[in-house]
Amino acid sequence: MGKIFVRANFAYDCGTSTAYEVLLYILGLGYAIIIMRITSQHTAFHIV
């Protein structure tokens, strides 16, 4: 979590548009991880 905050603060210093892109990237990455976890649990459930 610390790296995300540092990265966001660094991007904010560079410009708000960059910070917005970083925020969207973090949200997108978290959304992808959630989908991967759900699909992996779903397939594991079917295998069992």
Q: Summary?
A:
With 48 residues, the chain is mainly alpha-helical.
The 3D shape can be described as elongated
Number of domains: 1
Order of helices and strands: HH
Number of strands: 0
Summed over residues and divided by their number, the pLDDT gives a mean of 69
Tell me the number of helical segments per DSSP (H or I, 4 or more residues long).
2
Transmembrane segments: 22-39
Keywords: Membrane, Transmembrane, Transmembrane helix
Please write out the topology.
Layout: H1 2-14, H2 16-47
Q: Could you list some keywords that capture this structure?
A:
elongated; mainly alpha
Could you walk me through the main structural features you see in this protein, from its secondary elements to its overall organization?
The protein is mainly alpha-helical and 48 residues long. The chain has one domain (2-47). 94% of the residues lie in helices and 0% in strands. It contains two helices and no strands. It has helices at 2-14, 16-47. Helix 1 packs antiparallel against helix 2. The longest helix is centred in the middle third of the chain and has 32 residues, at 16-47. It is elongated and about 40 Å long. It starts with a helix and ends with a helix. The mean pLDDT is 69.
